[in-house]
């Protein structure tokens, strides 16, 4: 059962989607969620460490040390491997598949952690929208259209405080309650 929960996490952590929209004022969290303009998907591949996230039911058992590894498959899809450490010290792993929605620069992906034979069901695919990404592809924020889920990921387990604070300010302007973020344990 826990593997299924972690799989759903991976689905949300492993897809990108582009929805070009006007920025949502902080006072209007129901306004369309802006994303980055374009994504270089091959450059995005690799390891991303979870820095913080909104609380969610499918990561309840994760005690920390969460990360996502993305790699391109020959068919253009993305292989997703999500890991987190449980309270008992074991590592939970969820395997998923992502697909880019739109053109080759779209920052919108959909990810599924269900078996391939269920992929025809739209509900098994989770939105993964890249809403903030630095030019160096070192710090990213991922969410979905309803702003229910939010992850801050980094190429390294720690983020420079000024960069993190600036990111939180941008997220606030996009209608996110940054006070809800849980900082991920790294040690």
TrEMBL record:
Family to which the UniProt record says this protein belongs: Belongs to the calycin superfamily. Lipocalin family.
TM segment ranges: none
Signal peptide coordinates: 1-26
Role played: Involved in the storage or transport of lipids necessary for membrane maintenance under stressful conditions. Displays a binding preference for lysophospholipids.
Primary residence: membrane
Protein's UniProt keywords contain Transit peptide: no
Location of the Lipocalin/cytosolic fatty-acid binding domain: 39-185
GO molecular function: lipid binding
GO cellular component terms given for this protein: cell outer membrane
Alphabetized UniProt keyword annotations: Cell outer membrane, Lipid-binding, Lipoprotein, Membrane, Signal
SUPFAM superfamilies, A to Z: Lipocalins
Pfam family, one: Lipocalin_2
Species of the source: Azotobacter chroococcum NCIMB 8003
InterPro entries attached to this UniProt entry: Calycin (IPR012674), Lipocalin_ApoD (IPR022271), Lipocalin_bac (IPR002446), Lipocalin_Blc-like_dom (IPR047202), Lipocln_cytosolic_FA-bd_dom (IPR000566)
PANTHER family noted in UniProt: APOLIPOPROTEIN D
Domain of life per record: Bacteria
Protein name per Swiss-Prot or TrEMBL: Outer membrane lipoprotein Blc
Places the protein is found: Cell outer membrane
């Amino acid at each position: 059962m826990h593997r299924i929960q972690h799989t759903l996490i991976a689905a949300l952590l492993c897809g990108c989607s582009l929805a070009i929209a006007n920025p949502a004022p902080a006072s209007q969290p129901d306004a369309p969620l802006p994303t980055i303009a374009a994504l270089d998907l091959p450059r995005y591949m690799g390891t991303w460490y979870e820095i913080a996230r909104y609380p969610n039911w499918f990561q309840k058992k994760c005690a920390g040390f969460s990360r996502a590894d993305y790699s391109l498959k020959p068919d253009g899809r993305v292989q997703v491997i999500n890991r987190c450490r449980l309270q008992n010290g074991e590592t939970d792993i969820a395997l998923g598949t992502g697909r880019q929605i739109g053109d080759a620069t779209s920052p919108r992906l959909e990810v599924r952690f269900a078996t391939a034979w269920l992929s025809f069901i739209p509900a098994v695919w989770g939105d993964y929208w890249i809403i903030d990404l630095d030019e160096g592809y070192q710090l990213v924020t991922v969410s979905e259209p309803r702003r229910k889920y939010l992850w801050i990921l980094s190429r390294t387990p720690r983020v420079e405080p000024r960069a993190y604070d600036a990111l939180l300010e941008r997220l606030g302007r996009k209608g996110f309650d940054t006070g809800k973020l849980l900082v991920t344990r790294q040690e």
